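note to self — DONT lose this again. spent like an hour looking for the file last time. sequence + predicted structure for the chain T wanted, 401 res
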Amino acid sequence: MGIVIGVVGPHDLVDDVAATCEDQPGVTALRLDYDHESQAPAIVEAHAPSVEGWLFTGIVPYMLARDADVLTRPAAFVDYTGATLLSALVRLQHQGRDVTRLSIDTLSAADVTATFAEAGLPTGSLRTLPYRPEMTSEKAVAFHRRDPGHPVITCLSSVHEALRDKMQVLRLVPSVHSVRVALRQLLLTAEGQAQEDAQIALGLIEAANEEGLLREATALGGTIAAFRGGTHLLVTTRGPLHDATGGFTCLPMLARLAGQNEVVRIGFGLGRSAAEAESLARRALARARRIGEVAAVLSLRADTDIVLESAPAAPAAEHNLSVIARRVGLSVPTLEKLLEARAAAGDTPLTTREIADRLAVQQRTARRMLHRLELAGLAERTGNLTSGSSGRPLTLYRLTL
């Protein structure tokens, strides 16, 4: 079974990086290029349902996507230190450039120093601008221009475009070796995540009233069946259970079931086989019985038990945002901001501009998000509002998620 990797980067790098990825058997690369690195988060959000992992051609688009909270799949970036930087130094030396006097952006000073030390080169005259969240291509250009006597090494296509006619500038291009190292790291992470999420999770539930059990099982992506002695068996996997419990910290379904039953005890077990999961679920239920009439426990291997706290009941669509996020290809933090916008607006429809302002995104990004929600039945158009300018009318939406 293959894996689809989304390769994100500037136009002239994506094809080569994707081709190197597809040298690996079973890997299909989805080529996703941009004009400017600031577009990376929107690209990730738009294509999240189509990929099982992300490979960025450099650290900057990766960090922008990570800081925007849009990475819902395993992700890695190609490291430009080591082989990539050494290759650039060799090229500069062949051109007769002084490689001991360089102005380098994005890479950390420690990584640059280590690479130069491996090559036996002095570092006293180097200028470095490590990547920080507040760094922009404009700031990088200004940094390099402060000392025009230093040839420039940049990791950013936008910086290269701004300086190539004014200074000696070389843009780093990821080496095949660096791409393979990053891909190997990504595949290992994705495989580990897939195996972990696929762990069997069995729940044994003691509740006299069966109403609501099927709905809870469906929300967990599982099934419910009668077990024995009035106990019900819930079968799912680790991934949905992890999401629904906030990382195994609380169990909202406990409060909902307790509203219909005086006694609700739940024991979940996580195992590599059905037999192991059932054994652990029995242990968890036994401990829940010792705790009280309303209790839930998760039992793991190595004699680890986690008491899952109850949580206030939430609307069905609200308590399972992670499922909605996977369904519509948006991140959970984005959905939470949309819920906040809905709560603030009450019954008043929101314009695409208001949504864009609340999410700090461009209007076209907001329109794309709302279109996805509309297709999923989680938003509805209620009309248009003239913006008062010559631009297109603003569409009014009522959020129903």
